[in-house]
Write a structure and sequence with these properties.
The chain is α+β, with helices and mostly antiparallel strands and 884 residues long. It is 46% helix and 18% strand.
């Protein structure tokens, strides 16, 4: 279909859709069956069997399997079968870990997909872009990623950036008119908007004519399908660490084997023991456990309304030292309410809060109505120059659109102006709001074919463009005292933390030029709105907790300096001698200039998104790790440049979300603090199970090495070594990744981004605890063996049990940076369950007769258990009291 050659009504007929009602749910279902989901095909996922087989690609596991085969050929069937079973169980654990990570990451990718605004059964809805169907009526706004190939049916200065298709980054102006020319390339189809391209300016409505692989982008995707899998810096660091640990483990294992052979042990026995020890000692599951810990932590963050788009952000969150946050909607509720109106030189007061349409207008203490001069006109103009709409949900009004515009609709309702009045006016042209213009204007035509311009925007923007002012006696030339009165009213409103918005109009002739520069001059200023956006209740506490965590909170707003100062003071964000900078001052500063005072600045007022980039660079130049929030398309550069880019889930554009690493699903500042808390905890949990795994491995190697150096028999047989690895390294290590944060995690300073994994004494803890665990197991073996070969199986059982119990006690020690006694051991129910299951498995191996010959164990008595427990508790208790 050559949609660009068709009139819009023909497009509607061919797709059986009305641009005023959209598709029905039945039509959507039918089209989804016919065309599938609106998504590009990707490379096929690796099959589960291949993922499972991959668990056995490790060199040491292959060597172990070869050794097991040899054991079987030599008649050691029980050992061979036992080792095979343990290797298989280990393989299944690795498989489930990897699948859990992949599923979690796929879920995150799905949740972070762009959304689309579509008309279904007469109601505008936000849906994931993959659910857009052919024939859907789609609404496009500045900053949106276009969800499908769309035939534009109505355009308001729409411009799109199509570099994804054409390589050209210059925006393309779009229109809704049919193009008669034939055989046009995509870049020349000016009435079409294409999937995955970006709306850079304006707005439009269109009909989806192609989805998924049936789009221009789909044709490109079909030529090259690939997937990219990236690793986080921490995963990369741990992979490098793993290589070093493998080399060390192999060296120590070789030393054990050679010493054992030298001491007269059979070569085959020592070879099998050495391979088993190497498999147990090498933390081959570390990267998988890290991925699982990261993805599970991210799932917890989702429940706290923070969606992580890049796993690397989890690590960076723990290093954040500055949060630069938008005020509106993030620190405040984003429920604007008109509280004051400056009109005819007087300040009027408007009652009512939020989006409740009950309220009245008062002059001094006298209630006034629509008859008051210019009041009805001002509220009508505010309702007409407006893209928001009021909707009723569950008996309450909600605003679909910008909250500031929503507040004007609510104010108009309080005066008795119905939204149906908008039907009496036809919009001829729209000049959309953007951060550079700081205003929005429309040209409308009334029932009498009279045209006029309505403009709303910042008072300091509209006042210089207004030569006239509306007074009780009619339109007058603006005098010096009028300007003084307006500026005074702005200041008074700002002192009360009210945001100000001016509204102006201009009568037009039918042959008037539609050039924006000529339209928006010689206007008549009608009056000012003063609106409040109350701070979110939880933000003040979040700012204080962030301060305790060594994190500076900075407010960034386009509001008046006085308004920003008032709200910052109310939130306890601005200290007594803290600085407030405005956009004008920022314009006259270079990054080095700003860098000199940046640590004293807590509020940036009257700023544009372009200023945000300068703020980020100045903070970074001072060595800070910066989290920057944003919602508009112009925020994307600053968000991308920051260390942690944070976009708004409710009000943010698709482009901003794609540039960010973290999405606030509730647009709430307190959620940033929760995300940083969770990010710190995830990193600490990773440190916990690195500490646990490596200390356990050190203990396993040392008990074997010291026994060989002392010319003693093997304190552990190969199958026991593998069993220790399976029972103590698997589930408890995973459960540590689910541990709750310590009470003081948000009372410590931010982590330095270059901090090593073994920083803050972790290396000492691993080696010291590992040595003590190894000594405890060796002492247990020596006390039980007493030089009598007949006691060998009994002594090996004692050593085996001591090693397992010591490691399971040590896992609780790993939960705290301080001491095993500093935390409630039953707090982490997953860890308790993992330890209980490991103990039950140990008891089965020791006491169940069919397993005793397989694992070379014998039943233990009460006195034996007293010895085991005493020695097992020794490492954790010793360091618990020493607190090192």
């Amino acid at each position: 279909m050559k949609w660009y050659q068709m009139d819009t009504d023909v497009v509607e007929q061919k797709l059986h859709v009305s641009s005023k009602q959209g598709l029905t749910e039945k039509q959507v279902d039918e089209r989804r069956k016919q065309y599938g989901l609106n998504q590009l095909e990707s490379a096929k996922n690796t099959s589960g069997w291949l993922v499972f087989l991959k668990q056995f690609q490790d060199f040491m596991v292959l060597v172990l399997l070869a050794a097991t085969l040899i054991a079987g050929m030599l008649g050691e069937y029980i050992d061979a079968i036992a080792i095979m079973i343990i290797v298989l169980v280990n393989g299944f654990l690795g498989y489930f870990q990897e699948q859990k990570a992949e599923n979690s990451l796929a879920k995150l990718k799905e949740m972070s997909a762009p959304q689309a605004s579509v008309l279904r059964e007469g109601e505008w809805r936000k849906i994931p872009s993959q659910e857009v169907a052919v024939g859907d009526v789609v609404r496009l706004n500045s900053g949106d990623r276009i969800p499908a190939d769309v035939r534009i049916i109505k355009s308001n200065s729409l411009e799109t950036e199509e570099s994804a298709l054409t390589g050209e980054s210059i925006p393309v102006l779009k229109h809704a008119t049919r193009i008669s020319r034939d055989k046009l390339e995509a870049q020349d189809q000016a009435n079409m908007a294409f999937m995955s391209t970006l709306v850079t300016r304006g707005s439009a409505t269109g009909i989806a004519v192609g989805t998924g692989m049936n789009t221009v982008m789909g044709q490109i995707a079909s030529l090259m399908v690939k997937t990219e899998k990236t690793t986080t810096p921490l995963e990369h660091k741990l992979t490098e660490l793993g290589k070093v640990l493998i080399a060390v483990a192999l060296l120590l294992t070789a030393l054990v084997v050679l010493t054992g052979v030298y001491q007269g042990h059979p070569v085959y026995n020592m070879f099998l023991a050495g391979v088993s020890l190497a498999v147990a000692a090498i933390p081959e599951g570390l990267p998988a456990i890290v991925t699982v810990a990261l993805s599970l932590g991210v799932q917890r963050m989702i429940r706290k309304k923070a969606l992580v788009r890049q796993l690397s952000a989890v690590e960076t969150l723990g290093c954040a030292s500055v949060i630069c946050s938008d005020k509106t909607g993030t620190m405040t509720e984003n429920k604007m309410t008109v509280k004051e109106v400056y009109l005819n030189g007087h300040t009027l007061h408007v009652t009512g809060d939020g989006y409740n349409t009950d309220g009245n207008v008062f002059l001094n203490k006298e209630k006034i109505d629509r008859g008051y001069p210019n009041l009805e006109a001002m509220f009508l103009y505010g309702m007409l120059c407006n893209k928001a709409s009021l909707m009723v949900r569950k008996g309450k009004y909600i605003v679909d659109g910008d909250p500031t515009e929503g507040s004007l609709l609510v104010a108009a309702r309080k005066l008795g102006l119905s939204h149906q009045l908008k039907g009496n006016y036809r919009v001829i042209k729209e000049l959309p709001f953007d951060s550079d213009r700081k205003r929005m204007s429309i040209v409308v035509e009334d029932e009498n074919k009279m045209r006029f311009l309505i403009s709303k925007g910042a008072p300091d923007v509209l006042l210089p463009r207004s030569n006239y002012i509306m007074k009780e006696e009619g339109r007058q030339l603006v005098q010096k005292e009028d300007k003084q009165g307006i500026n005074q009213a702005v200041d008074q409103m700002a002192d009360k933390a009210l945001r100000t918005l001016a509204i102006a109009m201009k009568p037009l002739t039918k042959d008037e030029s539609m050039n924006p520069a000529s339209l928006e001059r010689d206007m008549t200023l009608i009056g000012l709105y003063g609106m409040t956006d109350p701070p979110r209740k939880e933000v003040k506490t979040a700012i204080e907790e962030s301060r305790d965590a060594g994190i500076k909170s900075v407010m960034i707003t386009g509001d008046h300096e006085k308004t920003a100062r008032a709200i910052a003071t109310e939130l306890n964000l601005l200290p007594e001698n803290g600085m407030v900078l405005n956009g004008y001052q920022l314009n006259n500063m270079s990054v080095p200039d700003l860098q000199e005072i940046i640590d004293q600045v807590y509020v940036f007022a009257r700023v544009t998104p372009e200023h945000k980039l300068k703020i980020v660079k100045a903070f970074q130049a001072e060595g800070h790790i910066v989290a920057m929030t944003g919602d508009g398309v112009n925020d994307a550069p600053a968000i991308k440049a920051s260390d942690i880019g944070i976009s708004m889930g409710e009000s943010g554009t698709d482009v901003t979300k794609e540039a960010s690493s973290l999405v606030l699903m509730d647009d709430n500042f307190a959620t940033i603090k929760s995300a940083i808390n969770e990010g710190r905890n995830i990193y600490e949990n990773i440190r916990k199970f690195i500490r646990y795994l490596l200390a356990s491995n050190v203990g396993e190697i040392l008990v074997m090495l010291m026994a060989m150096l002392m010319a003693m028999p093997l304190p552990l047989v190969p199958v026991q070594i593998l069993w220790v690895n399976l029972v103590t390294d698997g589930l408890p290590a995973m459960a540590l990744g689910l541990d709750q944060s310590e009470d003081d995690v948000m009372k410590r300073g931010p982590r330095h981004p270059k901090e090593g994994v073994f920083a803050r004494g972790l290396g000492f803890k691993i080696v010291s605890r590992g040595i003590l665990i190894g000594i405890a197991a060796l002492v247990a073996f020596m006390l039980a063996y007493q030089g009598n070969p007949e006691n060998l199986i009994y002594a090996q059982t004692i050593a085996f049990t001591t090693l397992v119990i010591a490691q399971l006690i040590h896992v609780f020690d790993c939960r705290s940076e301080h001491s095993i006694f500093s935390r409630n051991p039953f707090e982490n129910k997953y860890l308790v369950m993992a330890v209980v299951s490991s103990v039950l498995l140990l008891l089965a191996v020791v006491y169940w007769e069919p397993l005793q010959p397989i694992f070379h164990t014998t039943a233990l008595g009460v006195m034996d258990w007293m010895l085991v427990l005493a020695l097992s508790f020794l490492p954790s208790v010793f360091f618990g009291f020493s607190k090192k």
